Task: inverse folding
């Protein structure tokens, strides 16, 4: 059996510690995991896996502290609310008892006085506890009545909003092939009366449907090549078909051009790697494939870019020695930005450690490529992630619509 060299022995010890750290993270024992990491650093201070786990643990500890503070604040708020309710209940009981005592006192006083006419005695009688409770019930019933009226009003508004959406859908269907026919107008008029749509609402929704259908028809014609900047006749015919005036066309021309230009823009990729030679090679490969690439040698520069811009996909090395943020920390800070939460993220690394790969996958990273990789593998992975992201985005839009 081959004897272990001192270096192999160190690597074995560190590997065992990191396996324990991995198990501790899974069960939430962050402090114990940190102690294990300190022990591992004493054994092998330059081990990159140790630093990766240390970053991960520091972030988890910070998140744990934040959640604990939030829980403490929540408990304080709940305790304050409970004490306030108890104080309010105590004051109400004291008020009821006080009024009851006053009523008893007046009753004894009247009993000691000479009898007076019945009418006068009735006028002087104080409110009893039963009367106070009856008034309280009446007030609660009035409040419930108002709440029901408000609920009914909200339901009425929601129902009308549904009616407007339904009518808009029918308008779009009628305008899909151009201006409405007399038969379609008659059908829409009947639906408008049935749904309670006002003339003003009808005019507004009709204009929206007309505009949307014209834009859709224009983009379809542009994509098919039947309309080009040089073929003005076809464009004029399309405007007439949807009853779009020159003035109206001038208003939406900028939007049309923007949508066409946006459709022609290549996807933007953010690439981060501290190996300048590899960074340049990968950037050139991606640009030749038709992508727009923003490349940086540090995660700090990449993060500053992301604060202002939104790429279509992010590619980052894990072991970023010249950055203040390693790959895992950079990934989690990116996901903290709402508009970037769904952007595909791919890790690159020359490391082949199973634990490290699993950590990246547990974080939710979309994919993981190990260096060296072929151009075909890189491009296929990127295109697959972009296609999947586009499908998810379109599906979400349909559900929201």
Result:
């Amino acid at each position: 059996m081959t004897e272990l060299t001192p270096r192999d022995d160190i690597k074995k010890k560190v590997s065992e510690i990191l396996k324990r750290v991995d198990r501790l993270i899974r069960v939430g024992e962050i402090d114990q995991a940190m102690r294990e990491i300190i022990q591992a650093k004493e054994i092998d201070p330059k081990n990159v896996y140790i630093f990766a786990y240390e970053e991960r643990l520091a972030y988890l500890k910070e998140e744990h502290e934040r959640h604990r503070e939030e829980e403490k604040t929540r408990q304080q708020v709940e305790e304050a609310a409970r004490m306030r309710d108890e104080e309010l209940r105590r004051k109400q009981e004291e008020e009821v008892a006080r009024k009851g005592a006053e009523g008893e006192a007046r009753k004894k006083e009247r009993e000691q006085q000479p009898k007076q006419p019945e009418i006068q005695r009735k006028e002087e009688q104080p409110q009893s506890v039963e009367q106070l409770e009856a008034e309280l019930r009446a007030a609660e019933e009035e409040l419930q009545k108002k709440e029901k009226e408000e609920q009914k009003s909200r339901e009425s508004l929601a129902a009308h909003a549904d009616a407007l959406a339904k009518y808009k859908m029918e308008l779009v269907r009628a305008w899909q092939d151009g201006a409405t026919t007399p038969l379609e107008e008659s059908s829409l008029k009947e639906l408008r009366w049935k749904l309670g749509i006002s003339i003003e609402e009808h005019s507004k929704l009709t204009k929206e449907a007309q505009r949307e259908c014209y834009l859709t028809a224009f983009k379809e014609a542009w994509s098919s090549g039947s309309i080009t900047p040089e073929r003005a006749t076809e464009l004029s015919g399309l405007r007439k078909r949807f009853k779009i005036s020159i003035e109206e066309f001038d208003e939406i021309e900028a939007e049309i051009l923007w949508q066409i230009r946006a459709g022609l823009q290549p996807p933007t990729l953010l690439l981060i790697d501290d190996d300048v030679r590899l960074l340049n090679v990968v950037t050139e490969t991606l640009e030749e494939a038709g992508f727009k690439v923003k490349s940086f040698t540090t995660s700090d520069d990449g993060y500053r870019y992301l604060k202002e811009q939104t790429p279509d996909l992010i590619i980052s090395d894990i072991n970023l020695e010249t950055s203040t943020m390693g790959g895992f920390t950079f990934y989690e800070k990116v996901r903290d930005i709402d508009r970037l939460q769904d952007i595909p993220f791919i890790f690159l690394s020359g490391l082949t450690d199973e634990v490290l790969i699993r950590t990246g996958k547990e974080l939710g990273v979309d994919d993981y490529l190990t260096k060296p990789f072929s151009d075909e593998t890189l491009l296929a992975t990127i295109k697959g992630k972009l296609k999947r992201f586009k499908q998810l985005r379109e599906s979400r839009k349909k559900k929201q619509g």
